[in-house]
Each structure stands twice: as C-alpha cells, then as structure tokens.
Fold ATP-binding cassette domain-containing protein.
Amino acid sequence: MASLTYDLTLAGLAVGSAAALTGIGLIVTYRATGVLNLAHGAIAMVCAYVLLQLAVEWDWPLPLAAAVTLGVVAPGIGLLLERLVFRPLSVLGVDPARSLVASIGVFVLLVGGAAAVWGEGARADAPELLPDNPWTQLTAAVLLAVLVASVTRWTRFGRELRAVVDNRPLAVLGGIDADRVAAAGWAFGSFTAGLTGVLLAPFVRLDPYGLPLLVVEVIAVAVIARMRSLPVAVGAALAIGVAQAQLTRLHPRGWGEPLLQAVGANLFAVALLIAALVLPGVGAGASPAPPAAPAVRVPPGVWLVAAILFLLPLGFAGRDLHTAVQVPALAVILLSLTVVTGRGGQISLGQAAYAGLGALFTALLATGRFPEFPALPELLALLTAVLLTAPLGLLTGWPAIGRRGLALALATLAVGVAVSRFVFVQPYATAGLRLTRPEGFADDRRYYMLELGVLACALLAVGALRRGRTGRALAAMRDHEAGAEGAGVPVSALKLFAFVTGAALAALGGGLLAMGVRAFDPEAFDPVRSLLWFAAVMVLGADGLLAPLAAAVLLVGLDAGPRGGLAAAAVGFLAVLIGRLPEGLPGALRRLRPPPPGGLTPIPETGGEPRADPPRGKGGSGLPSGAPGTAASPRRRTMRRLRPARGGEPAPPRRARPPQEAAPRGRASAGGRRLRFRSGSGERPAPAAAERSRRFRLPLPPRGVRVLAPGLGAGRGGGGNRRAPGEAAGRPPASHRLVARDVRLRYEDFTALDGVDLSVASGQVTALVGANGAGKSTLFHCLCGTLRPDAGRVELDGADITRRSAHARTRLGIARTFQQLAVFPSLTVEENVRIGAEQQRRRRRDPAAVEPVLRLLELDGPIRDRIAAGLSTGALRRVELGRALAGRPHTLLLDEPTAGLDAAEAEALARILMALAADGTAVLIVEHDLDLVARVADTVHVMEAGRIVR
Ligand SMILES: Nc1ncnc2c1ncn2[C@@H]1O[C@H](COP(=O)(O)OP(=O)(O)OP(=O)(O)O)[C@@H](O)[C@H]1O
C-alpha cells in the first residue's frame, strides 16, 4: 500500500509540475502585461506539434528540435503576440475586456490553425523530451519558479517589472521601457507554455482541442494564487496533482463512485470552478464587456437578402443540404449571446454548456431513457428541455451579479468546463445517444424548413425584446451599470433574466442541432465551442440580429470544407484584430461609408452641438492627438468618458482607496467660513468653447415660472399637471423628507463618516459643501443606496430605507445624478430619458413624462434621436438630469452637477434647481462651486473630516 501511495504521489507530482509551469507562465504574463492569457494552452499545443513536426516528421535530433521549439518558436510566438496583438491594444488604451476577447481570438486562431495544418485527429507519437520521471519535471518546475522569483526580486529587470505592474504610466514617466518589459513577459510566458506542451504531449491526447482545454483548466492555480504569488501557484498545482492521483484509490460503493471518479479525473476543473466562483474575482475592476456599437437599424433590403440566402439551401440536396441543416440551429444558439453579451454586456464563455444540456435533455426525453417517464414526442421533448435548461442559466447568472470582466469570464468558463466534464462524459451521454426528428420533418428539407420557422420566431422574439423596455434596460446595464441602477433598473434581476433567457435560447438551438444530426455528440458542445462562438459573435457585431446569422453561416460553411479548423482560424484572426475594430466588423464597415444624414451617427464637430473640450493631460499614446482612430480622437474620447470609470462610480471598493482627482483649488467663503475648495472637477472652457456653449446651453426657465413639480407640472413643455401618487391635483404636493441619522462609515481603518445627521426636505435646495475628502460623496452614496453605512439609518418620511438598494430607492422617488457622467452612450437621447420614466414602479411609471422633460431641457429637437456618444458635456448633463426627472422624483440628489459646465450652463442649471424646489421637490446638491451654492441653496451644510460641522 505504501508503495502504491508513493507511486501515486509521484504520478501526481508529475501532473502538478506541468500545472505549476503553466501557473508560473500565466502569472508572469499577467503581472507584466495585465492580460490573462487564455491562449496559454493553445500555445502549448502548437509547440507540442512543432516539436513533433521537427523531431518525428522531419527527423531532426531531439535535442536540436527541442532547442528550436523552446528557445525560438515558443518565445517567438509570445513576442509576435505582444507586438502584433497586445501592444496595439495597450497603446490604444483599450479596456481589459477587449484584451480578453483578443486572447480568446488567439486561442481560437491557434486551435483552428493547428487543425488546418496538422489535422483534427489525435497524435500518439509525440516525442518524450524528459524521461518519464516526475522528479525531473518537478525539479524543472521548482527551478523555474525560483529563477523567476530571484529575477523579480534581485535584478534590475525585476524592479522594472514590479514598477510597470504597480503603475505603468508612472513607470514610463520614470524612464522604464514598459513595452520591453511586456515583451519579456510574453516571451517568458510562451516559453513556459511551450515547456508545458512538450512535457504533457506524450502523456495526454495531442489534438488541437484537448491539450488547450486541459491547460485552460489549470488556470485554476493562477487564480488560487490571486495572479500574484508564485509559491502559492506551485504549491496549489502540486497539491491538486497529488490529490487527483490519490483519489483514484478510493472506490466508495453506490452512486458516490462515478461522482468520485469524475472528481478525481477532473480535479483541476473542480478547482477552477471553486476558485472562479468562491474566491473574490480576479480583475474585478474591469469593464463588463467590450462596449457594443450602437445598434443600427438594418435596412429591410439587407434582411431580404439574408432571408433569400437562408432559403437557398432548400434548393440543395444530399450532403450540402445535410450540412446546411446545422446553420439555423447554430444561429439560434448564437442568438443567445446577442442577448447575454451583445445587449446585456455580460461576458459568457459557457453557452456551449447550455446548448449541450438542451441537446442532451431533448435526446434523453425523446428516447425515453428514464424508465419512469414515457418517451416524449420530439417537439415536446425539445420544449421540455428548454424549460429544464432555462433555470440552469442561474449557474452563470448568479456569479454575474457580483462579477465583471475577467472574473465573470472565468466563472462562466469554469461552469462550462464543469458541465462538460461532469455531465457530458457520463455513460448515459456518451453511449451513442441517438434521436429522431419530429414526425413530418424527417427529411432534411422539411427539417430545415422547421428550423427556419423556429429561427424566425427566435429572431422576432429577441428583436421585440431589444426594442422594448427590457431591451433598453439591458443596454443601459451594459453601457453603465451604476447609471442603470441609479435610473431604477434592477440590475441583479436583469442579469439573471439575461442569463436565463440566454440559456433557454442556447438549449433550443442545441436541441435543434442534435435533432439535425440525429445524435447527441458531447464534442459538439465542448468548452472550446463556447470560446469560438463568443469570438465569432463579438467580431461580427454582438448587439445585432444579423451577427448570429452571419456567424452561423461562416462557422458551418468554412468547416464543411475538406480542411477542418478554417472557420476557427478565420474567426480567431478577426478577433485578434478586435482592438483595431472597436465596434467589430460591422463598425469597421460602417466607417467605410460616408455618415448618413441624421440617424444614429455621432454629431459632427461642426454641427449645432458643441463637443466637450479634450481632457487635458491624458493620452500619452505617442500618436497625434485627435488623429482619426487614435485614443485621443474625439469620438473615442467621448466614448471613454462615458464609460464608467473602473466599474462604475458608486459603491467604491471598500479596500482600494481611489486616487483623489487632481483639480484646481481656490478659496471662497460659504456661510461665513473660509473654505479650501475645488472649482468643480471640470475645467472652465476656453473662450471659444464658452462661445460655442452660449449657442447651445441649458435652457433658462423664465424667472418665477414653476418648471417642474414632483409630478412634472407646469413649465414651458406643459405636459399636463401630473403629481406624485397621492397628491391630488390642485393641492400642494405632498411633502417628503430624506433623513440621515447618525450615519457612520469606515473604509478599512479610515473613518469617512463619523455620525452624520442630515435632512433633505421638500421645497428646499439643501447644499453639502466641504473640502476634498471631507466625506460628501460618501454621504451622498449612503443616501442614494450605493453604499450601506456601518451604523446609523437612512429614512424616507420616517420609514427606514437603509437596506434598500439603489434602484429600489430610485423607484421610491429618490432620483440621482452622478459626479462622473453616467449616460448610456449607445442609446439615443430620448431612450436615455425614457429609461428614467419606464423603470419606475408601475404606479409611479408615466411614459408621458418623457416629452415635457425633453422639451424643458431642450432635448426635443433633432438631438433626441442622436446617440449619446459624441454629445458635449453640457448636453450630456442635461440628458442625465432629464433621465432623473423623467421618473417624477420627489427627491433629487445631485453630485457636483456643474462639473464640466460653463458659466452659462451652470447659471441655467441653478435656475432649474430653484424652480424645482419652488415646485416642491427636495433637492440636495454636493457642490464645490460656492457661488452657485450661495445663490440656490436654502440650507448649506459644511462637512469636515466626516462630520457636519455646521
Ligand atoms: N473606496 C474607498 N476606499 C478607501 N477610502 C475611500 C474610498 N472612497 C473614499 N475614500 C476616502 O474617504 C474620504 C472621503 O471621501 P469622499 O469621496 O466622500 O470625499 P468628498 O468630500 O466627496 O471629496 P471630493 O470633494 O474630492 O469628492 C477621503 O479621504 C477618501 O480618500
């Protein structure tokens, strides 16, 4: 027994050593570049093939072949990737989500390329580089870890690496060549990938799909090490390897045995699942998903052409028709990504799991595999499978509530891998599960027609969803999660909805696909498919209904040829270019066309709408500022400005203290006190900008005119005399009071709020002023629900609302705006405002409130149909205010509302605020412009060091 334990331990150490190498490579690349290289396994696979090619096919001596593979090819791949793919992305300053798509693109490109070059079949003749002795491999892994740790700690390069990791811009300013550091990181990461590949290849199935996936699971050890600690990564890899080997000795009786065997065989997949779901997310500050291009209305002619193309296969016969049967089914699966990622902005790398579950359930139900249940007719089985799979969408929907970007990508990938490893490989799924087609649709032509019908219904349903209230809310959530929450969108519930709908659609497509080929094939739904499908939809235009159709045609069409893998290679190639195609392929094509008049295009610089001045002191790309396509070009600037900074403004992470904004300081008096203050976070516009903004500024309501009431009453826009619920027309509006009582909040060991009492009452403008860091924004967040105080209460009309979420408070009538603009850039001005009206509770909801608000804020001209991206700061502030007012709030909370406005716009805003208060609204402003405060505020509170001092 002792020798069995020893042998198993040795075997486990061998596996663990290979995993440790992977962990080391992933961590070094991540630390040097900020990119989690999902393609690590694909590089490993390519290097294994290269060694095989050199040593076996071309008969080179093994040492020479190994030296070329590991010394030239592997680092060369890394350097090429850095130079051609990732350096352009970092120069353009794109968000991490887009780097993630690029690394998925590299994965898909390498897998597809390898399949095209070496074929899809498994090779069993990979040469053994090191003797089959775990100690040798273990020594290699430990030596490598020690070498990396020593280099990082004691060499100049290590110091530069740490400087780049800590603060890349600062390191560059300090004279460090960050590109060289990144290139070294990539070269080393690829070298470790190559080493892993050539060491593992003789012992695992070497094919283009298996090895990359195996290595993807090993990302677990890097996640466990928080992408930071090499000893932890090596320790975790060895421990999992040994535990996995030892588990094979256990043979419990009954149902536990297959489960234990499955766990034992896939312990890295289990570790990935646990690490991705339980540990705090890696890269949590990343933006949710690459920003989608504004949805564009597809001309009917294009739809006609698409319809004709999809009808063409009805004229096919034989093999061609049989192949075409896969297209509509795959299009339905890909449509699920349009909902989840394209519209909802949630990265999902697990859609193949849902498609597979749909296929599996359909097959099991239709073939009567469960003795307790009779076999169901095929269509009923399909419907039941969809209903069974839909709630399983919560498996990825739930993690999405607290995760974004990379962390969500890992969580959804882990769920997909786990489903594939634990469900699709069970005997019931692998033992040739065949199924028939519905009666009357047995032959390919009729079945294709049935699929077209289902696809048309799915397209109509998703189209209606996108056009409606829920679709707008999804787009808002994608564009700016915190802004959506502030507008009353129940973000968590909406994420669950998106994933459940996505799972249902994927299951529908999966069931159709399985019926089309008359069998359940687990390999058709392995996690590599998820990556391929995700990349294809992202590239072809995630938020469009045409993208799934085009992607399905591309994927099935190219793979139908004699060489497999071409589709993956093509999609991968496009995906690695995604940094240069910021809006996917459709966006790039649109750019080639002259802009259509009006419509959903950004406003031209010379149009009636002024643009914001370029932010000063930004950029640093080395490209001419404002050059088309550069980071500093006006359109890109505006898009970036609109994107939530580091995952949205509110609910700041409790641990990381955000850097204070640099802003001009001055002195002024308020309430008799001399205060240091910041003159708003925006710069005063240059004279030319001031002149432009005079031409287009916030409207000035006539003095003395009641502009807006809690019910959007009188005003230039008219629009009836609506009042808040319970407020009978003609009677004065009900009075409301928002109160903070003894509110306390600490950021780790720093007391930000130290027993604050504040009251915001109807019919008054209450102002909160104070020096930077006094705690104003923290109190503001506590009032609007984006931060929960450690102690104390927030009350609305005496009722405790401390535990109410931000969107629930908005629905109670407490609207807010954001210090950093929170507008939804891909939506039109009108849609932005409409979201504020339609996300209210049913009894508060009043879509008719949109028009008067648009008129009041002079957003009712041609500007109403323009997408928000590209508008000036002044216009965007109006849009944001309009969204808040469209919900007919009784309480309005404004955080630095004059930031970025010029004097005329600030003056107009002041009048509106006074008019709102005169009409019964409770207004709270947090403001640095003390002149404005002195003019509009009925009550001024001064904060100092977390307390209200007067
Ligand atoms: N997420 C956080 N983690 C740690 N400390 C934080 C965090 N957010 C704010 N702080 C600190 O809490 C204090 C109060 O910050 P807050 O943003 O509320 O001040 P403020 O009065 O609004 O300042 P400003 O006018 O600059 O916006 C500051 O010292 C700030 O550095």
In short: DSSP finds 37 helices and twelve strands in the chain. Residues 595-732 have pLDDT under 50 and may be disordered.
